[in-house]
């Protein structure tokens, strides 16, 4: 070995974060492999590499025998030494003794050198793969940034710097048009290791993607002061999140919105215009359901904690808003709260006698301020004839 190799190993460790010790171990193993190829066995070989100089030594332990004969086998030549030759090294040796014999590197020849080189290169590739895998495995369930580099059928390759991730069709936001060179953030779903290198699956539709975006924009969430308790998302269209504060003087909704909406708008920009509703979490399921149905005003909510079902009454003019376009507002509220929600207008409730059954139940104010809608101007459409039963 030489000074150039030592410098190369130092460079690999510095630039690629590949352990110099691991490379030296690979060199030792490669030299043992070369011995086995050259001598037929390596069971009696000891290889050591000096980590400071990269100089190496190869020692064979050989048994002293009377004679190797006229045509000794390759293995006999590697494991045995004649008494006459042994006594040239040490005149006190006898048959049956073991002598340590250094192997001169030229005995390997060109083939052995090639074997050593190939094994070293393979180890370098393996170590690089391990480094990349460990790096991105630590980012699983987190957000990374990347650039769209190519399209593979309906899947998209996102270059993350050291490796490409796969954004499968099922994890792409419907209607979101991606172009080569687009820089975007993605949620790391899974990192798998395989011989060809790590396979990273990413998503832009996962609800936790929104959660991580808010964590990156809102210091109070990162610090644990504000907590995201629940998320319901229809990717590309609308997301509802319920938040609470662990400090009474911190408004969780306001913290997420930011001054002039700067924080929530940063999230919306990354989601390419997806609407985001932020509501206050409440341990009382009735109040939580009222908040979740915002921006609609609610007259009353009766929630059954055992069956996870809730009856909701809203003013007649608020029914379509409560349900939302194609039922989206009520559907997201059901997912956010975990309740099956039956929404009726005030007229429907009176006609069905529902108000009579509300005696003794919670009748909540319609003046709640527990809601923020980034864009609530969407036209609401709904059928209102027979009530509206929305499941999670």
UniProtKB/TrEMBL annotation:
Please describe the quaternary structure of this protein: Monomer. Binds directly to the core enzyme of the DNA-dependent RNA polymerase and to nascent RNA.
* One Gene Ontology cellular component annotation held by this UniProt entry: cytosol
Q: Which GO terms describe its biological process?
A: DNA-templated transcription termination; transcription antitermination
Sorted alphabetically, the keyword list is: Cytoplasm, RNA-binding, Transcription, Transcription antitermination, Transcription regulation, Transcription termination
Q: Where is the S1 motif domain?
A: 141-205
Q: Where is this region: Disordered?
A: 354-392
* Any one GO MF annotation of this record: DNA-binding transcription factor activity
Q: Cross-referenced Gene3D superfamilies, in alphabetical order?
A: 3.30.300.20, Nucleic acid-binding proteins, NusA, N-terminal domain
Annotated source species: Lachnoanaerobaculum orale
Any idea what this protein is called? Answer: Transcription termination/antitermination protein NusA
Entry's InterPro entries? Answer: KH_dom-like_a/b, KH_NusA_2nd, KH_sf_prok-type, NA-bd_OB-fold, NusA_N_sf, S1_domain, TF_NusA, TF_NusA_bacterial
Protein role: Participates in both transcription termination and antitermination.
Q: Which family does it belong to?
A: Belongs to the NusA family.
PANTHER family, A to Z: TRANSCRIPTION TERMINATION FACTOR NUSA, TRANSCRIPTION TERMINATION_ANTITERMINATION PROTEIN NUSA
The places in or outside the cell where this protein is found are: Cytoplasm
